[in-house]
């Protein structure tokens, strides 16, 4: 997964925030040795935290890969086209932890940041995106924490995708960690648009010139239209999956044939 828009301009801001934090620590007159020990501990905790989230990614990725392989071998067709994963970098994690203003302990950070582990699944068809989301959500050991349906309700800028935060158990030597993983499930058209929008937002630091804004708005409409057309063609490739999902209250009706 590419860096999030918020992750893009991390280095400068992180440096400033870390400097401010150091200043704060220095002014309380902490003993340098105690401070060094504290920093070493924090570093170790962060390393462990990231390891657990990587395991969370591995667990969910295995589930996605199993579905994909099962479909490919049994049906010659898979609703899953591509899968990408990303673990939030330490820089980006520290930046978000400072920005979201809470305690800087690992426990507090875990509680308020849910996109440390991310998996992005790209599907050919809109109905497949919902289908994959429902299949994963139905698995007994995945607990769905939140669902955001930006397909039924796109963001103001035209961004469309399904977002789920799921919690997966990770079995360690001494205990079980419950790890939240952010899933982004979308079509190829939605993904293409989001990737271009992300690069433009990064380049223009989110102050897009109006003519580019208008182009992007138009591209969002074209992507939406392409998805609707492809959905009409999908019946030729594979009939609509028969499933009763319960995750998406306002799931759009499939487009009529024709
Ligand atoms: P973050 O704090 O950025 O994670 O956002 P959030 O907690 O409000 O969650 P949301 O579900 O809105 O967005 C989570 C992730 O979806 C982001 O980190 C991006 O990867 C992606 N995303 C959300 N909105 C946009 C958008 O407008 N454009 C693009 N390209 N990606 C987006
Ligand atoms: Mg994010």
TrEMBL record:
<dbReference type="InterPro" id="IPR052366">
    <property type="entry name" value="GTP_Pyrophosphokinase"/>
</dbReference>
<dbReference type="InterPro" id="IPR007685">
    <property type="entry name" value="RelA_SpoT"/>
</dbReference>
<dbReference type="InterPro" id="IPR043519">
    <property type="entry name" value="NT_sf"/>
</dbReference>
<dbReference type="Pfam" id="PF04607">
    <property type="entry name" value="RelA_SpoT"/>
</dbReference>
<feature type="domain" description="RelA/SpoT">
    <location>
        <begin position="85"/>
        <end position="208"/>
    </location>
</feature>
<protein>
    <submittedName>
        <fullName>GTP pyrophosphokinase family protein</fullName>
    </submittedName>
</protein>
């Amino acid at each position: 997964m590419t860096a999030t828009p918020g992750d893009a301009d991390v280095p400068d801001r992180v440096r400033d925030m870390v400097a401010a934090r150091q200043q704060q620590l220095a002014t309380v007159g902490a003993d340098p040795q105690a401070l060094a020990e504290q920093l070493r501990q924090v570093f170790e905790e962060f390393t462990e935290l990231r390891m657990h989230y990587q395991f969370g990614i591995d667990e969910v990725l295995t589930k996605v890969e199993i579905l994909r392989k099962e479909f490919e071998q049994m049906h010659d067709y898979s609703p899953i086209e591509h899968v990408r994963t990303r673990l939030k970098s330490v820089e980006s994690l520290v930046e978000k932890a400072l920005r979201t203003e809470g305690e800087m302990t690992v426990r507090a950070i875990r509680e308020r940041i849910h996109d440390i582990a991310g998996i992005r699944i790209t599907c050919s068809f809109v109905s497949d995106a919902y289908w994959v989301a429902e299949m994963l959500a139905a698995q007994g050991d995945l607990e769905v924490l939140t669902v955001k349906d930006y397909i039924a309700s796109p963001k103001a800028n035209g961004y469309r995708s399904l977002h789920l935060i799921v919690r997966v158990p990770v079995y360690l030597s001494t205990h079980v960690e419950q790890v939240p993983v952010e899933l982004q499930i979308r079509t190829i058209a939605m993904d293409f648009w989001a990737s271009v929008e992300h690069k433009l937002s990064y380049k223009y630091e989110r102050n897009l010139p109006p003519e580019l804004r208008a182009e992007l708005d138009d591209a969002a409409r074209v992507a939406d239209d392409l998805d609707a057309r492809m959905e009409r063609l999908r019946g030729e490739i594979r009939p609509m999956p028969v499933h009763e999902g319960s995750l998406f209250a306002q799931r759009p009706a499939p487009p009529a044939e024709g």
